[in-house]
Amino acid sequence: MSFGRAVLSIVFPPLAVYDKGCGSIFIIFILTLMGWIPGIIGALIILNKSED
Question: What is the structure's pLDDT at 52?
């Protein structure tokens, strides 16, 4: 995860996970609507998952 992606996940979490798929964007968007902090946490978790 790059520094720019981490900052973007704090500013606007759904935009930070745009390349992870439509489902990820939708989940993070719903979490962001429920509260800003859950959206950030969800985005950081998705971005930190290692790609095998």
Answer: 47
What sign does the dihedral 52-12-29-21 (CA atoms) show?
A: negative
Q: Using alpha carbons, select from 3, 5, 10 the residue that is nearest to residue 47.
A: 5
The residue assigned the tokens 């500013």 is 11
Q: Is the dihedral of CA 15, 19, 22, 24 positive or negative?
A: negative
SS3 (DSSP) at 6: helix
Q: Output b/e per residue, 12-44; b: 16+ Cβ within 10 A.
A: ebbebbeebeeebbebbbebbeeeeeebbebbb
> Tokens in use for 5?
């992606």
**What's the confidence (pLDDT) of residue 23?**
86
